[in-house]
Structure formats: structure tokens, C-alpha cells
Design goal:
Elements: H1 2-11, H2 17-29, E1 31-35, H3 49-52, H4 57-60, H5 63-66, H6 74-83, E2 88-94, H7 111-114, H8 121-132, E3 135-141, H9 170-184, E4 193-197, H10 209-219, E5 224-227, E6 240-243, E7 266-271, H11 288-300, E8 303-309, H12 319-335, E9 353-358, E10 361-366, E11 373-376, E12 383-388, E13 396-399, E14 405-408, E15 419-425
Parallel strand pairs: 1-2, 1-8, 2-3, 3-4, 4-5, 6-7, 7-8
Antiparallel strand pairs: 9-10, 10-15, 11-14, 12-15, 13-14
The structure holds 4-nitrophenyl 6-deoxy-alpha-L-galactopyranoside.
EC number: 3.2.1.51
Keywords: Glycosidase, Hydrolase, Signal
Function: Alpha-L-fucosidase is responsible for hydrolyzing the alpha-1,6-linked fucose joined to the reducing-end N-acetylglucosamine of the carbohydrate moieties of glycoproteins.
């Protein structure tokens, strides 16, 4: 037992003070913008197009020659994200296609060396966001559909012709990733998170997380590590994410019983469109009400929302996606105090309501405008007053012995998006 304790003490991850401080910043932020943009955007069929259409390496390899997003304006993007009320962005520095969106020294398959555009998009985006006070995290794919050393192949990418599987070299692949992560965390100033994805492609591989995570934390101690592996957090991670879902719901079926909600800061991610990367057949455009409800429910779970845009090949973000972001920004300008810096998770949100809390104030978000009365179970606080968000209208309530809070809205107090009430507790 003694020996085990010693071994545990040596390997257990102790987040640094800078890291803990950044977790607190992250938790208070509640809203970030996810960006899926790469050479795949050219084909308008989502970011999985290489795998889905079984394009060969040489076929897909034509794309960088055409990637020339003349309308890309990092400053305009950054201003849009700022106006949306986002506190951070998470940008796809390298997706499953293995293409680097920065001037990587360890792979010529990158934006500067392989495209006519020749500009370091990561650099421009980081600088523009920093100037707006929007922090930056990097999405980084663990899985790779291009490199020969990423073998034996994983679950996906097997239909892609042109790889030399004889050249598989797992350790070399891990070293390559470490070199790239070192570039990303050395050349672009403060980066507040690395968002890994693709673990699920090779569930049994030795991803050498201990070394990779400690490399990241040694380069930038505040940098928060998350990993879209749909399992309980691995030692060394700083936040837990839930893809296209709400914490603990596992509606995507990606998760397992181990995908339990832990105690780390939480983030859910989802799209404004149907897909992550630009899709010309974009027929699942979400309404403002839908994206707002997602943000509010996430906050009700004590989780951030990372909401995705999929910019077009010319560098523009589609109008309706921009509009959703601006609508959220306008809403947050008015109701931000009920989202930013709040706690959640004390009452489980439903499609009808979500509750957030700051000190002695609880914000009751009513998401169903067709109802005039609401029953909220498991409400254990003692209410002293309940009013509309602007404080002008009193709302009737009573508390039942079984911890059910009953609300009765006066006529005229309705909001088709989110009726926010302010409740004071004793
Ligand atoms: C991943 C990516 O594959 C996708 O392109 C996008 O970047 C998204 C944010 O993350 O999506 C997943 C994650 C897990 C599985 C499949 C897709 N899975 O477990 O099968």
C-alpha cells in the first residue's frame, strides 16, 4: 500500500497556480467560438470529405494549390467574435487531413509552403483576437489521414489510397506531434488551451499523453488541455468536453459509461450549421432560439458552450452564421450577467428551463413561452423574492415541501427566446 501511494504521488498531475487561475477564467467565460476551416472547406462537403469520398492522397493533395481565401480578414473575424460575446476561440490548426494552418517547420504540408495564399493564418488570427481581448485555444487532431508514420491505420482513413504503410513508425509520429505542439506553443504567444481530437480512432494506441501533456504544461503552464475522447478525463487534462451534447446526456452515442461528468471545468460544443466544416448543402441551419437555448442550457449545467462556424473557402463566414453570433452578442449584452461567471448544475436543465446562480441571485431562464406556470423540482434554496430581469414585474411563486418550486407568470410577461427572472435566496 505504501509503495502504491508513493507511485501515485509521483505521477499524479498537480495543476500549477497559473493553470488553476486559467481554469477559473475558463469557467467564468461560458462562451467560445469554434472554427473549422481548412483546405477541405474548398469542396463544401464537410471536414471529413477526404475520408467520406475516399479521395486518394494525390487527389486531395490538389486542394492546397487552390486554397487562396482572398476575403480572409482576421481582424473582421476577431471583431465578430468579440461582438458575439465570445471570450475565446478554438481554431482548427490541424484537422484529420493533416494539413497545418500555420507555418510549420516540421511539415511543408502547410498554409505558407503549399498554398498560393502563403500567409500564416494561425498567426493572423491569434494577433487579431488578442487585440480584441478574445483568447485563443488550438484544436489539434491526434489522428492523421496523410502521414505514413501514422500506422497501423486506425478506424478511419482506411479507404485513402497513396499511403506507404511500410513506413509506419509510431514513435516518430508522436515525436512529430510534439514538435508541432512545441511550435504552436512557442511562436504564437499565450495560448490558453489545446483541444485534442481523434483519440477514438485508435483507442488502444499508446498516445503517450503523460509526455505530451507535461510538454504542453511546461511550455505554457496556464494552457488548458481537453481531449475529445469521450471517456472520463485522463490524468493531466484541465477540462472535460462533451461533443454535440450536454454533460451526462450522451445522446450522440459516442460516449460510454465512463463518460461521466467529472469535476473539471466543462465545455460542450455544437454547430450553427449541420456540419462543422463548410457544407454547401447546409440544410440544418439553427435558429437563434436553438443556439441561445444551447448556450443557456449549457450554463445551467455549469458548462461552457463552444459554438462552431465553418467559414467558406473565400475566407468569409456565411451571413446567417454571422447573424446568429451577432444575435447572441446582442442578447448577452443585455443578459450577460445571467451567463458569465455563473454557477450551474444545482438543478438539472430541461427544455422548459435552466437555472444559473451568482451569489444570492439565481437566474431562472424560462425557455418555453407557451407556458404560464412552471414546476421546478429539486430546488432546495429558500426564496426571498422573484422578479422579472428588469426588476419591474413581480412573479408569483410558492415552494412545496418536496422541494418543488412553482412559478406563475403574470399575463404579459413572456419571451419567445428566454424569459429571464431574477430570484433572490435567503
Ligand atoms: C470530431 C471530428 O471528427 C469532427 O470532424 C469535428 O472536428 C468534431 C468537433 O470532433 O468528431 C468526432 C468525435 C468522435 C467521434 C466521431 C467524430 N467518434 O467517437 O466516433
Amino acid at each position: 500500500v505504501c509503495f502504491l501511494n508513493v507511485a501515485f504521488a509521483q505521477t499524479a498531475y498537480k495543476p500549477s497556480a497559473a493553470n488553476l487561475e486559467n481554469r477559473a477564467w475558463f469557467e467564468a467565460s461560458r462562451f467560445g467560438v469554434f472554427i473549422h476551416w481548412g483546405v477541405y472547406s474548398l469542396l463544401g462537403d464537410g471536414e471529413w470529405v477526404m475520408n467520406d469520398q475516399k479521395l486518394s492522397l494525390s487527389e486531395y493533395g490538389l486542394l492546397p494549390k487552390f486554397f487562396n481565401p482572398q476575403d480572409f480578414d482576421a481582424k473582421a473575424w476577431a471583431k465578430l467574435f468579440k461582438d458575439a460575446g465570445a471570450k475565446y476561440i478554438t481554431f482548427t490548426t490541424r484537422h484529420h487531413d493533416g494539413f497545418s494552418m500555420w507555418n510549420s517547420q516540421t511539415s511543408d504540408y502547410n498554409i505558407v509552403k503549399s498554398t498560393p495564399f502563403k500567409r500564416d493564418i494561425v498567426k493572423e488570427l491569434v494577433e487579431a483576437c488578442r487585440a480584441e481581448g478574445v483568447r485563443v485555444m488550438f484544436y489539434y487532431s491526434l489522428l492523421d489521414w496523410k502521414r505514413n508514420d501514422y500506422t497501423p491505420l486506425g478506424r478511419t482513413g482506411n479507404g485513402i489510397a497513396g499511403r506507404d504503410l511500410e513506413q509506419g513508425d509510431w514513435n516518430r509520429y508522436i515525436e512529430f506531434m510534439k514538435t508541432q505542439l512545441t511550435e504552436l506553443l512557442t511562436n504564437y504567444g499565450q495560448i490558453d488551451g489545446i483541444w485534442f481530437d481523434g483519440h477514438w480512432d485508435k483507442k488502444d494506441a499508446d498516445w503517450q499523453y503523460e509526455e505530451i501533456y507535461s510538454l504542453i504544461h511546461s511550455l505554457q503552464p496556464q494552457c488548458l488541455i481537453g481531449n475529445n475522447h469521450h471517456m472520463a478525463p485522463i490524468e493531466g487534462e484541465d477540462f472535460q468536453m462533451f461533443e454535440r451534447d450536454l454533460p451526462g446526456h450522451n445522446t450522440t452515442g459516442f460516449g460510454t459509461a465512463a463518460d461521466a461528468v467529472g469535476s473539471l471545468p466543462k465545455e460542450v460544443c455544437g454547430t450553427i450549421a449541420g456540419s462543422w466544416g463548410f457544407n454547401i448543402k447546409d440544410r440544418q441551419q439553427k435558429s437563434f432560439k436553438e443556439v441561445l437555448s444551447y448556450l443557456v442550457k449549457a450554463a445551467g449545467y455549469g458548462s461552457n458552450l463552444l459554438l462552431n462556424v465553418g467559414p467558406m473557402p473565400n475566407g468569409e463566414i456565411q451571413d446567417y452564421q454571422q447573424e446568429r453570433l451577432r444575435q447572441l452578442g446582442d442578447w448577452l449584452k443585455q443578459y450577460g450577467e445571467s451567463i458569465y461567471g455563473t454557477e450551474g448544475g444545482f438543478v438539472r436543465p430541461t427544455d422548459d428551463y435552466a437555472l444559473t446562480k451568482k451569489g444570492n441571485t439565481i437566474y431562472v431562464h424560462l425557455l418555453n413561452a407557451d407556458k404560464a406556470s412552471f414546476l421546478i423540482p429539486n430546488f432546495t434554496f429558500k426564496v426571498s423574492s422573484l422578479v422579472s430581469f428588469d426588476g419591474k414585474t413581480k412573479v408569483n411563486f410558492h415552494q412545496l415541501d418536496n422541494d418543488v418550486l412553482v412559478l406563475q407568470l403574470p399575463e404579459g410577461l413572456r419571451d419567445t427566446n428566454d424569459l429571464v427572472l431574477k430570484l433572490s435566496i435567503k
